[in-house]
Each structure stands twice: as C-alpha cells, then as structure tokens.
Design goal:
The structure holds two protein chains of two kinds.
Chain A: H1 7-13, H2 16-43, H3 45-56, E1 57-62, E2 69-70, E3 78-88, H4 95-109, H5 113-121, E4 131-137, H6 139-147, E5 155-165, H7 172-175, E6 178-180, H8 183-191, E7 199-201, H9 204-208, H10 210-214, E8 218-224, E9 230-238, E10 245-248, H11 252-269, E11 274-280, E12 285-292, H12 297-301, H13 306-314, H14 336-345, E13 355-357, E14 360-363, E15 366-369, E16 377-379, H15 381-386, H16 390-411, H17 433-440, H18 446-452, H19 463-474, E17 478-480, E18 485-489, E19 495-497, E20 503-506, H20 511-526, E21 540-548, E22 560-568, E23 581-587, H21 596-609
Parallel strand pairs in A: 2-10
Antiparallel strand pairs in A: 1-8, 3-4, 3-5, 6-7, 8-9, 10-18, 11-12, 11-23, 13-16, 14-15, 17-20, 18-19, 21-22, 22-23
Chain B: H1 11-14, H2 18-23, H3 27-50, H4 61-81, H5 85-89, H6 91-108, E1 118-120, E2 127-129, H7 130-147, H8 156-175, H9 179-196, H10 200-221, H11 224-234, H12 245-257, H13 268-271, H14 283-316, H15 320-344, H16 362-380
Antiparallel strand pairs in B: 1-2
Classes of the chains: A alpha+beta, B mainly alpha.
C-alpha cells in the first residue's frame, strides 16, 4: 500500500538540483533586500534622516499685534481686544463623527449645522489647516467647548485678539475691517507668510495699509505629529514685530460734524444715499469723509452673521460702497468749472466777454433748454457761472469743442483715479471723440458736446474728483493727491513716515484766470443762487449742481442728484488762494424743491465754525421737484 | 482502500525510544522561529509605548502579542506531538473545512471598509483571519495530492490538478477581497510544484500564460484601490498624500534608521504617526527605523537560517508528503518575506502581505506555529538516518 515509503521510490521524490535552486532563491531574495537596505540605510541615510526631520518639525508663525489707527488728534479709533474663537481642523474630525460633532457645536455656538458645514466646505486651505467656525465667542462658551474636547474631535478653541472699532459705523468707510482670506487670494498670500485663517484688511485703510498694520509674524520651529498637532516648541527663530500704527488726517470731531450734517439732510429730504467730504486744499489731506448709508465694521470683527450680510447686501443704496470714491455720478453744473476755466485759458472768453443766455440752444431739431426755460440775456463768465446758466455754457462748450473740453477735464483730475489711499476708487469718465469712437464706433454729436460742458450726458465722476478739482481752484491751481493717512508710526511711537503732500500736477492755468473763476464761484453765493449762504459770517465760494440721471417719469422729467462743492476763504479775500477748507456735498436722487446738498453744507459749516445762528432752510428739503411745480 | 488508505505508525517507528526520537527534532528550527517571534514582540512593545498607555496594560498591541505568542507555542507543541501522517488521511476533509471557513468569513466576517476578513472567535473574543490558516491547509492538501502522484509528476495533468485544487480557495480569498493571500497561495503552488519535480517546461508555459493573464486581471478582477496601490509603487511621489503616502513614509522611516537605528521606541516616523499601520503590514519599516541596518540584517539572517532548517527538514524526510510540506512552508515564508519587506523598502508593490512572525496578528503567527509544528512532527516521525 504505502509504496511511497520504499527507499527506491523516495529517492525520486527529492530533487537535489531543485533544492539547490531553492537555496539560491533564498540567497537572491535576502541579497536583494540587503542591497536595497544598504542603499536606503547606509548610502541615503542622511537624506532620509532629513526627510524624517522635515516630517516632524515645522516652522509655525507667531502672530504679531496689528497696528492701531488714530485720528488726527491721537484718539484711538481701533483697539485690539482679546477674544476666543472656535476652529475646526478637518483632518482631525473623523468623517463618521462629523455630523454629531457639528450638531453639538451648532448647539453650543447657537449656529446652524448647515452654516458650520458650509464653512468647513469653503475652507480655502488643506484639511490640515484650521477653519474658523466662529469668532468672538464668549468666554463661558469657549470654556464649555474646551472642556468637551474629547467629544469634539478636531474642534479647537483659540485665544486671539480681534479688532474693536471704537466709533462703530462713523469710520467704517475710512478704516474698513479685517476679514478672512478668500480662496483665490490664498496662494499669493501664503507665499508672503499668511496663514489660511489669518485676518487681512478687506476695506478702508485696513486694506490699503495692510502691510504696515500687520507687522511681521514671528517664526517658531515646532515638533508636530502626522496630523499637524504641535507637540512642543523647539526654538523661536524670530520674534514677531508689532504692526505700525496709522494717524489719520481726519479728526473725530470733524467726522462727527460731517456725519451729523449729512444724516440730518438725508433724513429731512427722505433719502438714504449721500456723501459729505472735507479736504484741506493746501495739502490734499482729507479732514472728513462720510458716505451714507454705511455699515458697522464691528459686525465683521465679531463675525458677521448671514442675516446681517443679507440685510446689507439687499440694501439698494449699497452700504458697503464708499460713495465718495467707489461710485461715479454725473457731476452736473459743478463741471462748469472745467468749461469756464478752459474757455478762459484757451482764450475763447475774457472775463468781460458776454454770451447771450436764452431759453434754449437749438441744434437741428433738438432744443437744449436753459434750466429756468427763459435765460437772463447777455452774461459774462462770472454772471453765467453765478446763475449756473446752461445756455451760456452750451455755447462756451461749442466754442471749446469736445477735445479741448476733455483736455481741461483731465487737467482737473476727471477721468483718472485721484490716488487716494483707500481701496476701491473708480476713475469716472471724460468723453472724447476717441473714447466714443472706441466705445460706440461713432464720433461725438454736437449736442453731446453741449451736454458734456454742463456735466451731463456721458460725464461721470466721483464726489472726491469734484472736490479735488475745486480744491485746485481754491489753492491756486495745484492738484493734490488726497490722503486720509497723515502719518505712520512705529509701535514705540516714532514717526516712520511723516506727512508730505503729493502734487499730481500744477494746472496750466494762469493765476488771473483762477482769480476770475474764484470770483465766479463767489458770485454763486452773492447772487443768492445758494440762498442765504452769502449771509453766513464766512466767505464761501462754490458751485451747486443738479444732475439728472436715470429714467424719465410720466411728465418727462428725470430724477436728479444734488451737488454742492466749495471752499471757504481764510483771509476773506476771494482773490487769494488761501482756503484751508474745501468740501463736497452730494445727495443721491434728492428730488427736493431746493438744493439739499447746499443745506447739508451750511449745517456742516455752522458746526465747524461754531456759528450759532442757524441758516438752514428745511423747507427747501421738501420732496417735490426743482422744476417748480 | 478508500478513506483509511494510510496506515500510520509503522511498528518500528512507534516503539523507538523517546530519546532517539528527540535526536531527530530540529532544535535550531524552533530557536530561529522563537527569536523571530521575539523580534515581533519587541516591535509590538515599541508600538504600544507610542499608543500612550502602559505597554503592559491589557489590550495593547504588546499584551495581545504576548497572548498570541503563548497560544502559538501551545499550537506548535500540539502539532509537534500530533502524528502528521493523519493529515494525509484527513487531507480531503481538511480541504472541505478550509472552503467552509472561507465561506463563513465571507458571510459573517468583518474588516476595513467593505472587506470581510476577520471572524471574531466566540468566548475569547479575539479576531481571527481564516485566510491565513488556508495557506497551511492548502499546503497539506497539495502535499497530499502531489505525493500521491509521484509517478505522473512530469505530466501536465499534475500541474492542472494542483491548479484546480487551488482555484476555489483563491476565488474565495479574492472575494473578501484579499489580493495578498491570493498571491501567497499562487507562490505556494508554484514552489511546491517546482520542488515536487513537476515538469519545468510545463511550469514555464503556465508562467507565461499567467503573465499573459495580467492585463485581464488588471481590467476585470482588481479593485481600483488595489490598482492605485500597485501603481503608486511605480511612482510614490505622484500622490504623496494618497496611495503613495505609505510607500514614501516607510522609505523615510527605513532610511532614517541608518546603520544602528534610532533605538527602540525612538523612531519619529513611528511615534509621531507618520507611518500608519505600523503594527501590521509596515512593521518592518519601524523595525528598520528603530533597530537600524544591523537589526534588519539580524532579522534577515534569522529568516535565512530558518528557511535553511525548513529545507533541511524537507530534504531529510523519507516521506514525500513531508518533503513537499516543507517545500510549501519554505515557499510561504520566502515569498512573504520578499513581498512584505520589498514593499516596505520600495521594490515591491503594496499588497497587504504580513511579514512572518513579526507582523502583529494572531492568525499569521498561529498558522506559522502550526506549519512549523507539523514540520517538527515530520522530523520526529521519520526513520531516515540524520543528514
């Protein structure tokens, strides 16, 4: 039976050569593995050692203290206050537990689970980067979450500081706010040392002076595990350098006056949107800058809720936009400064040349009406400007032609950024033949030239451009770059950058012609085009504007904005370019019987100069229309 | 005829003095195996330290390893005492049992993701992977099959027969899915056929056919994650956070170990978790990191010595079953050594094959103890003069 156990057969079952081959196979396998180990562990050991080191050590940033923003007199407008925030590191949040953790966290934070999930999903960084879930969490909640740590894997509570904007909405348009870095920005910023959940200036000087305010983050070498959790600090490579502080050219009090005046005017006129800005024409320093409606930067600092965000975004008067610089409107009659100065300097007019004002100017079948539909007979530049005669300036525009008009507009700074140190500025538009050819494929029509001369038609500009143009008139022809930040100071108080005015250009206008235009601007007051401005105990020069826009109503009338731009003589001598104060007042869609912008400006000037008598005429702010019926 | 064809224990062998019998026991074999198992326990200790709890506490990798090692020693002793010739008698029922256990694994098994590899054994509450046991059971079945076909080893039918025996087992294992075990089974069949004296020509033809089958397997049999792991072996840097992560991190661990290693429990790749599954498939990376080139060489030397003793046992056996059983066991150990260490050091794709004795896992250790025990049983129960 068991043949296999017989000796003569068992010999066959062993194959010496095959045993030998198997032995060789063992030698080859062990030899190959050993060879590879020699390569990895002997030859390449230093390289892999370095890689292992790189695995476990990381350089992490140590945040610096963000710089403070002060007003002109040294009042702090922003402070850093300690706060708690709750963050999630997605890599540490196991997927099966995620729903439970998010639900519990939502409960503790009073948020919706969907909002938390949305934040995790919107995380611009990697799974190992912290995602901010909620900022400004109160201490008891923070403590509660920290204590539940084991039940909330991946959730971290961190102590940090946040911005507190002391004056709330008053300075929001100037200072702006800090916010989370958006995914598209992240790649660039990471190269500059930003962390994915770092705050970064998102508006105002927080944005335009981000680098100075941020300071320089320190660096630490830390040991970490595979999930990125820091085990211990190995060494501090560099100490964080606190950010520099900004001193604004704006004074809290001036800003409050401007806001008070604008709020009163808008409320009385029953509208929402307007601008009041004040500048020192001798330097370009902004002394007040108010744009309404606005927002409260603290909403962002505390972590804006979706409901707040929706409310802001659904407001048709765009509270996030600084209407003084980020929106452009037809400048209306304020633009007659350009037309008048250009005509004088191009010698189309002399101060005594008379042009006949009349009910309308006709080009072909089209009638271009005087605003009072009558005219005043022959007028000089001073009278034409003073009465804001449209037919006078139609004819002067035609003398200049569109190209010279565009040239002078650009000299006054229209159609170009003023270069103010705030983000979001727009350039406005100065129409020219070339521009219209490029845009519409045809030349400017003669009628369009007439409209361009009175700041209608294609003309659009920002309130700041209008202000800056009149500041140049006030100071004798120097166009300055407006600035809101006066000085930059180091954390220890030393001045890093002192204030220097930035001259954009000296206007190619003779002093005599500028005197003529200042006299014309004064004539606006003395002729009582601005009602009782002339009665005030200060010498105000300026120009009103009623700028039509939009779509005609049933009676064929257009809605309109109100402008009033001007400056106050320091010496009382209109001929001298010595004004220290220029202002622009703008009311969007005013549609009031009188000029709402002028009333606002009067109120501001009363507050600024401490004028006790009240010159305001609220009856002018009744909604109706300026056409008089 | 029939079931009781084998007639165990010829009188001469059965009545030999106990002292004589122990002279044929291979002490070296047992010592090398014990030393390798000790290496496994040392690495388990290091990993338990990393887990933060006391390594001696219940339920750590280390204490579980000690427990399994104890069981393995008992299994080894029992298998040595057991007369292996009964295995020949019960080869076919064992084959049935093997298929049954694998079907059971598929039915009630659990595992990572959707796999079903482990069965929790009632009462002791420990998990067991029957596909490990399947390797030894297949060696027994194949040794039985091939030793009965001594006269027809040259024919294609022997090779095909062995293949047919293997096929259902491979299919059940692939369904779990467990690519690694399936490959080990192939290696065992190939090694045993080769050592049995099967026709080299036909083996070559079949090997060529297997190579031709690779594209089919790639497109229709392998799962996406299996393909990704195989591909990442070719270029680990292509996806360092994904499937290439293990490969990169394990090579860093090995390379950072250098000549003498960082010392037990000092490996940063291990202790800071840069290398996941450091207790199982990638345990050799940690061994190389903490014990260095020297430690790794000692392990290789122990494997080489062990394999030499296994082959020596096979050579000495007068019973073709014993010879073939030894050949199968040697194939298993050599193949797993090559593929596991090769994977860790980046010369083999990731397939999830444990490193014998050292990878933490009860089933693998018990299976090896069983195999070596049977081999010692073969050593004890042969009449050939010592070689």
């Amino acid at each position: 039976m068991n043949d296999s156990l017989l000796p003569n057969e068992t010999v066959r079952s062993r194959r010496p050569m095959r045993f030998l081959a198997f032995g060789v196979a063992i030698a080859v396998v062990v030899g190959a593995l050993t060879t590879r180990l020699v390569f990895l562990q002997i030859q390449q050991a230093p390289r892999f050692e370095a890689l292992a080191q790189a695995n476990m050590t990381a350089s992490v940033s140590v945040p610096s203290t963000r710089g403070i923003v002060y007003d002109r007199s040294g009042h702090a407008l922003v402070q850093n206050i300690p706060t708690w925030s709750v963050k999630i590191r997605p890599a540490d949040l196991p997927y099966p537990q995620r729903d439970a953790v998010v639900a519990r966290l939502a409960d503790l934070l009073g948020m919706k689970s969907t909002d938390i999930n949305a934040r995790i999903e919107a995380n611009p960084g990697s799974r190992f980067d912290l995602v901010r879930i909620k900022s400004d969490v109160d201490e008891s909640t923070a403590r509660l979450i920290a204590e539940e740590g084991l039940k909330l894997p991946g959730v971290e509570v961190t102590a940090e500081s946040r911005r507190d904007y002391i004056y709330g909405p008053l300075f929001s348009q100037v200072i702006g706010y800090t916010g989370a870095i958006g995914a598209p920005q992240l790649a660039d910023l990471e190269a500059k040392g930003y962390l994915p959940d770092d705050p970064i200036g998102q508006a105002g000087v927080e944005s335009s002076y981000e680098t100075a305010l941020r300071g320089v983050y320190g660096q630490q070498q830390v040991e970490r595990d595979a999930t990125g959790r820091v085990i211990r600090v190995l060494q501090t490579t560099s100490v964080p350098q606190p950010g520099q502080s900004l001193v604004l050219s704006i004074d809290v009090k001036e800003q409050q006056y401007a806001q008070q005046a604008l709020e009163w005017g808008l409320k009385t006129a029953g509208v929402q949107r307007g601008v009041f800005a004040v500048m020192n024409p001798q330097t370009g320093e902004i002394l007040a800058l108010v744009s309404l409606p606005t927002y409260d930067a603290n909403d962002f600092a505390r972590g804006i809720t979706d409901a707040q965000m929706r409310a802001y975004l659904s407001n048709k008067d765009t509270p996030f936009l600084d209407h003084a610089i980020a929106e452009q409107y037809p400048p209306g009659s304020t633009y007659k400064l350009v037309t008048g100065t250009g005509a004088l300097q191009d010698k189309k007019l002399t101060p005594t040349t008379e042009v006949l004002s009349k009910p309308f100017v006709q080009i072909g079948p089209d009638k271009y009406w005087e605003w009072n539909r009558a005219g005043w007979g022959p007028l000089t530049i001073t009278e034409g400007f003073g009465r804001s005669s449209d037919t006078f300036f139609y004819q002067v525009s035609a003398m200049l032609g569109i190209e010279r008009l565009a040239y002078w507009a650009k000299e006054f700074g229209f159609g170009a950024l003023t270069g103010i140190d705030l983000p979001g500025e727009v350039a406005g538009l100065v129409p020219s033949n070339q521009w219209k050819q490029d845009t519409f494929g045809q030349a400017i029509f003669p009628g369009e030239t007439l409209q361009a001369g009175i700041g209608q038609g294609f003309d659009v500009s920002t309130p700041l451009q209008v202000l800056n143009a009149y500041a140049a008139l006030a100071n004798g022809g120097k166009l300055y770059q407006p600035q809101v930040v006066r000085e930059i100071k180091a954390a220890d108080g030393t001045v890093v950058r002192a204030f220097t005015p930035h001259l954009i250009r000296k206007l190619p206008v003779s002093a005599a012609n500028l005197v003529t235009m200042r006299l014309a601007a004064r004539r606006v007051a003395t002729i009582r085009h601005t009602y009782n401005v002339v009665d005030m105990p200060i010498i105000v020069m300026g120009k009103t504007g009623t700028a039509e826009y939009g779509v005609k109503d049933a009676q064929g009338r257009l809605p309109y904005h109100n402008w009033y731009v001007g400056f106050v003589s320091k010496s009382g001598d209109v001929r001298k370019p010595d004004s220290q104060l220029a202002f622009v007042s703008f009311v969007y869609g005013a549609d009031t019987v009188g000029n709402a912008a002028t009333e606002i400006a009067k109120y501001y000037l009363q507050l600024h100069y401490g004028i006790k008598k009240d010159y305001r005429i609220p009856s002018l702010l009744v909604r109706g229309n300026f056409y008089g019926d | 005829m029939g079931v009781l064809r084998a007639e165990p224990a010829r009188l001469g062998a059965a009545t030999r003095a106990v002292g004589t019998a122990w002279r044929t026991y291979d002490w070296q074999l047992s010592v090398y195996a014990l030393m390798l198992m000790t290496f496994g326990l040392v690495m388990a200790y290091s990993n338990s330290v990393h887990d933060g709890s006391s390594p001696l506490a219940m339920g750590t990798t280390f204490t579980r390893g000690v427990m399994w090692s104890g069981i393995a020693v008992v299994v080894f002793a029992a298998a040595t005492a057991f007369d292996y010739k009964w295995l020949k008698t019960f080869a076919w029922p064992l084959y049935g049992l093997n298929l049954g256990l694998l079907v059971l694994s598929l039915a009630i098994g659990t595992g990572v993701g959707n796999s079903s590899r482990w069965i929790t054994i009632p009462i002791i509450g420990m998990q067991f992977q029957f596909s490990e046991l399947a390797k030894i059971l297949m060696i027994i079945v194949l040794a039985r099959f091939l030793s009965a076909r001594e006269a027809r080893l040259d024919s294609l039918s022997t090779i095909l027969g062995a293949g047919l025996l293997m096929a259902p087992v491979v299919v059940l294992v692939m369904l779990q899915p467990d690519l690694g075990t399936a490959l080990v089974l192939f290696a065992i069949v190939a090694g045993m056929l080769f050592m049995s004296g099967a026709s080299i020509r036909w083996l070559a033809v079949l090997a060529a056919a297997a190579v031709a089958f690779v594209p089919v397997a790639w497109n229709f049999i392998l799962h996406d994650y299996q393909k990704a792991r195989l591909l990442s072996f070719l270029d680990p840097a292509s996806d360092p956070q994904g499937s290439g992560y293990h490969l990169l991190q394990s090579q860093i661990a090995v390379g950072a170990g250098g000549l003498l290693g960082k010392g037990l429990t000092n490996g940063t790749q291990n202790q800071l978790d840069f290398l996941p599954v450091q207790t199982t498939d990638f345990v050799f990376a940690i061994l190389a990191e903490e014990l260095g080139f020297v430690g790794a060489l000692v392990v290789f030397a122990l494997f080489a010595a062990l394999l030499w003793r296994v082959l020596a046992s096979a050579w000495r056996s007068r019973d073709p079953f014993g010879t073939l059983f030894g050949a199968g066991l040697a194939s298993l150990i050599l193949f797993q050594l090559l593929v596991n260490v090769g994977m860790v050091i980046g010369i083999m794709p990731i397939t999830g094959i444990p490193l014998p004795f050292i990878t933490h896992g009860g089933a693998s250790l018990i299976t090896l103890a069983l195999g070596l025990g049977i081999l010692q049983s073969v050593n004890l129960r042969q009449t050939r003069a010592e070689w």
